[in-house]
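Structure (tokenized):
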């Protein structure tokens, strides 16, 4: 209870640096945004038995509460999935914004899977651990391939089968995918027909 009263005191003392929800009208629930929590973290870090309020306000005016240590502290104690902050703009660098979209977004996602696979593979080879990183690398490459096929074939069908995707691409464009590319895709499709194979450990029989 003492901690609650302390936060209320800080919210009152540093009202000008906080959102209106931090000091709502009587009867309404107090709520703190991410920016508010950064302010309160900074205040807490500089609070003493006889605090220098003016010094703290100067630090807030200089936006010292946006230092990396306060940002890390904030996001270490927040949910992995959450609504984006109200003040979100192009300078925001503390998370990933997930939203739906059309072809361009699918293409970007396919490229991201491919880039992730290449980065993982590069790290694995540099660390001499390609075997240990095999599943994540193949998982990313496999999903990049699936997305590329769905974009090329304008596929809206809910399928993760590479064999089915190949068929639909050929049907869409009225011609066959050339060799040996088609054979490579179909072989990977046999190994992982549902898109989940590389997400779990292989059984002894599969090895």
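Design, position by position:
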């Amino acid at each position: 209870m003492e901690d609650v009263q302390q936060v209320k005191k800080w919210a009152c003392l540093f009202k000008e640096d906080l959102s209106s929800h931090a000091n709502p009208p009587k009867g309404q629930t107090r709520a703190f945004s991410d920016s508010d929590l950064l302010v309160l973290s900074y205040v807490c870090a500089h609070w003493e038995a006889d605090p220098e309020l003016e010094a703290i306000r100067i630090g807030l005016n200089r936006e010292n509460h946006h230092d990396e240590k306060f940002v890390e502290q904030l996001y270490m104690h927040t949910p992995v999935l959450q609504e984006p902050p109200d003040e979100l703009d192009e300078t925001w660098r503390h998370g990933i914004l997930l939203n739906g979209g059309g072809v361009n977004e699918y293409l970007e996602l396919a490229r991201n899977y491919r880039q992730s696979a290449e980065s993982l593979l590069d790290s694995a080879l540099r660390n001499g651990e390609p075997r240990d990183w095999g599943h994540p690398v193949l998982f990313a490459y496999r999903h990049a391939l699936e997305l590329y096929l769905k974009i090329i074939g304008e596929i809206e069908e809910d399928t993760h089968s590479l064999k089915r995707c190949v068929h639909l691409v050929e049907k869409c464009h009225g011609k066959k995918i050339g060799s040996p590319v088609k054979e490579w895709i179909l072989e990977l499709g046999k190994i992982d027909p549902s898109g989940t194979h590389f997400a779990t450990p292989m059984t002894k029989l599969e090895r």
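Reviewer-requested clarification: The mean pLDDT is 86. The two ends are 58 Å apart (CA to CA).
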